Amino acid sequence: MSSSDLHLPVPGHPIAAIATPIGVGALAIVRISGAGVLDLADRVFRKVHGSEKLADATGYTAHFGRLYDGEEMVDEVIALVFRAPRSFTAEEMAEFTCHGGPVVVGRVLRLMLDSGCRLAEPGEFTRRAFLNGRIDLLQAEAIGEMIHARTESAYRTAVSQMKGDLSARLGGLREQLIRSRALIELELDFSEEEVEFQSRDELSAQIETLRSEVNRLIDSYQHGRLVSEGVSTVIAGKPNAGKSTLLNTLLGQERAIVSHMPGTTRDYIEECFIHDKTMFRLTDTAGLREAGEEIEHEGIRRSHMKMAEADLILYLFDLGTERLDDELTEIRELKAAHPDAKFLTVANKLDRAANADKLIRTIADGSGTEVIGISALNGDGIDTLKQHIGELTKGLNKLHEASVLVTSLRHYEALRNASDALQNALELIEHQSETELIAFELRAALDYVGEITGKVVNEEVLNTIFAQFCIGK
């Protein structure tokens, strides 16, 4: 299905929503969009100076006035007028900047609803911008990414996508796919004459070039995911090693309960902290030991599950341990079990160990891992630890600044499918298969690329994407 085949619940019906966070503030914004919204606004808006109606105003103009509910003044506001198609939604729009108290904002919104607007659905303003052709689906998603960006890297990547950098790359891919597909399908129209409009060697070379470009975008996803979601960092170790204390120290707040009793953490706790402009998603896990009860057993199972998903594992052990051989075995086994994750051994409780340096060397030699000594309780060695975990993402903030990154799992999967279809087409050409089969794979690759920008999309995908937006966006 193409984007032009989709429709809104009520096409062009006036909608209204609060576009700023709920709460007490100096100012707030209520926005409206749709057919005839400026006429609806004129029912409740009166200019302080002059008598010009908003419906007669030119686009990109601001008007100082008052909103009235009957004869009762609701608030003094600034009304911004936007004319179709040069507005965010490509429809007639107005935005009212009012005072930011929740009662005031609620009255302004109610006024718009009573005037003929309906409350907007989550993301409906952005959805209309997409359906009206002002932006593509990838750019719409980038708006949401930019709003929720927690690091400079994530923000810059979202801005790049919102500008259309990735869309332009995909647009170029689509154009090349369309040309290759057109020549193949032209042959189908002349199948009886057995005409070949392009040699199979030339077609194979073109498809291989396209597949290489698609694969470069696929390869960027690993970096894009780290930028967008943060580095998944799991703190693991035996009970009472100080994992919760380390989490609290890195966060700078008492997030996890700390107790001298082993096994306090029964389930994992996730929080984020930012170091050197990179976000790390910290996970404090249940202590690794033989479980004595069902709840603890489930907590340990979840610990292993989170380690399987981790980009970085910090294995924490107590320098005061009397079971050093057990710790060495655990470190070696965990490192071997998670070869795709970066692994760093952290020796905790420096302040309580008289022979800490010797123990650290023994652990490093016996486990084949790098070991950092810290005291999670008083903060010794924490800066060194942060420096080492930063090595995982060294250069990430500057990575691909001149290029584009794929940050969405939806985009990644679509590109993987497109790459598979192109590979199938290459194999069909190599085996001198029927032209119809080659054309089918090229059409499939074209559709998969089109899914990313919304050239080919369905209502379910749209509903999933825009349900994650706030109502005023």
Q: Which features characterize this protein?
A:
473 residues, alpha/beta, Gyrase A, domain 2, Four Helix Bundle (Hemerythrin (Met), subunit A), Rossmann fold, 3 domains, seven-stranded mixed beta sheet, six-stranded mixed beta sheet, 16 helices, 13 strands, flat, disordered N terminus
Strand content: 15-25%
CATH H-level homologous superfamily name of the largest domain: P-loop containing nucleotide triphosphate hydrolases
CATH architecture of the largest domain: 3-Layer(aba) Sandwich
Tally of separate domains:
3
Gap between N and C termini, in Å? 25 Å
Q: What value does the average pLDDT take?
A: 85
Identify the CATH class of the largest domain.
Answer: Alpha Beta
Helicity level:
40-55%
Domain TrmE-type G: 230-394
Binding site for GTP: 240-245, 259-265, 284-287
Main location: cytoplasm
Binding site for Mg(2+): 244, 265
